[in-house]
Fold ABC-2 type transporter.
Amino acid sequence: MTASGRRFRTTFEMGLREYARTPVLLGLVLFLPAYFVGIFIHVLPTSSLPIYVPGSGRMTVQTVEIYGALLVPLMGALIGGIAGLFVMLSATDADARLSIAGVGPVSLLAARFTLIVVAGLAAVGVSLAVLATAFVPEAIVPFVLASLVLAVTYGLLGTLAGLIVSRLAGVYLMLIAPMLDVFFFQNPMIDDGHWLSTLLPGHFPTAVTVDAGFSASVAWNQFGPILAWLGVAGGVAALAYYRALRT
């Protein structure tokens, strides 16, 4: 293993230990998705509603299935955003010392971003496992990929919040923003969505999860805007992180 690889591994393992020493974060990552999804799929009424599925047009589906297609990306975005916030808040001082000790900024950045991916994977995995007791998406691979990319995108936005606002304000921001984005603006039960919905990070990922939830064939070109949002969020977060290290 190269020297940079060893530095990345050491920094990543330090971040995992930091996760383990933060019970609130562990509870959010593992317990909140299971609780939230479990409550919804067991309390929703057994009724059917018409929705618009991007790849199939108008369909009438069960209420639990509609919200299931939204809950997994929502939990990914919510947990990813909070994880990114906590990663940045806990890493700012430590990473500055590691940088002085000779750990390169690329290794530090890669390790921190990988921690966000791990949190997103855990949130999406737990949410999907609980959802599977009531509803399984038709096209599972694009469903999971879209949910995971949204989780990482909000995780990167969470790192920005950790650099710009206080801990409390950042937590509120990362709780409210994904909820408004995914659950309200992107709701497929709304016929005439607000124009702002198309500009939000959750627009294309939730279009894919709704499509994949009820159709076996998904238009993969929808991942272009999804990855573009990820690239923009990653670029801005990286620049802000480097600036924080220099100061």
In short: The chain has one domain: 3-246. Residues 201 and 229 are 6 Å apart (CA to CA).
